[in-house]
Structure formats: structure tokens, C-alpha cells
Amino acid sequence: MKPETEGHAPRGDPTDPLEVAEVLREGLADAAAKASRLVSVLRHSSKQKKALQTVLSSLKQLDLGTEELR
């Protein structure tokens, strides 16, 4: 495992700043894509929850007792 370098290249490692910037850009793009997917999943989940609440509310309004279902 690499030691933490707090954004600086380790001593003796002549890393090209352009290469570091490209790796950072790729990491940020990956994080943005994951965040976008997460937002999409959460929105979908929220819509499903609201729909389920609507259905349950409608069923309660019908006042179907367990005796009537037998």
C-alpha cells in the first residue's frame, strides 16, 4: 500500500504533473458518474416509496376488514 503523501509526490519520485492531473481528472470523473447513479437510484426509490404509500392509503380508505377477505 502506498503511504499518504498529502497531494505531493513522494521524495525521489519524479512524477510528471500532467500525469498526476490526468489521474486526478479520471478519479473525479469516476466519482461524478457514481454520484449521478446514486442520485438516480435515490430518486427512483423515493418515487416507489410515494407510490406504495398512495396504494396503502387507498387500501385503508376501502376499509376492507380481514373478515371480508375470508
Structure description:
The protein is mainly α. Helices cover 66% and strands 0% of the residues. The chain starts with 16 loop residues before the first helix and ends in an 8-residue tail after the last helix. The relative contact order is 0.05. The mean pLDDT is 84.
Topology diagram in text:
Elements: H1 17-62
Give a quick precis of the structure.
The protein is mainly α and 70 residues long. It is built from one helix and no strands.
Distance between the termini: 64 Å
Radius of gyration: 26 Å
Largest sheet: none
Rough shape? rod-shaped
Low-confidence stretches: none
Task: Give the class from helix and strand content and strand pairing.
Answer: mainly alpha
Separate helix tally: 1
Order of helices and strands: H
Range of strand content: under 5%
Q: Could you report the average pLDDT, rounded to the nearest whole number?
A: 84
* Helicity, as a percent range: 55-70%
Write down how many β-strands occur, each being a DSSP E stretch of 2 or more residues.
0
Task: For this entry, give a set of tags.
70 residues, mainly alpha, 66% helix, rod-shaped
